[in-house]
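Please annotate the following for my students:
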Amino acid sequence: MPSVMGLLEERERAARQRVEALQAELREAEAVWERFVIARETVGEVLAESPGGKEVARAVVDGERPAPIAAAVPGSVVPHWREGFAPTVLAPDYRRIMDVLDDGSGTVGGAMDCRQLAAALGLEVVPGKVEGVRSKAKRLAARGWLAEGRPGLFSVPAGRVGGS
């Protein structure tokens, strides 16, 4: 029959092994966490060095969601229009729509419908292409980049002509 002291020593050894394993796991988790902190701080520093990046950098370092910066990539989200934003913050497809409407080549005071927009963009005027243009124009209108005077008739709002 095992002694009481032997049983206690066995349980102590098992508890020590569990503590050592948990401490190793904690050290590993802390190392991962530190890498993320360093990455966030580095991104904040890099963004602070870019034009207008101080506000974005502060948000990144503070863990907030930063405001959109003036760089676009295909498939990116269309930001809500704000004073000082130029169409250059938009993805290329959206920027092309803005350029066509900004040229004033529409028929009704610079306004164009989606079929006219598709044709002006050099796209085939087929339902699939027209609906793609309509979707993008509606998104631009919903975010304040375009005005939709009548349903389906889009134009650049007065005061924003010329890329601002």
Q: What stands out?
A: The chain has two domains: 4-61, 87-155. The two ends are 89 Å apart (CA to CA).
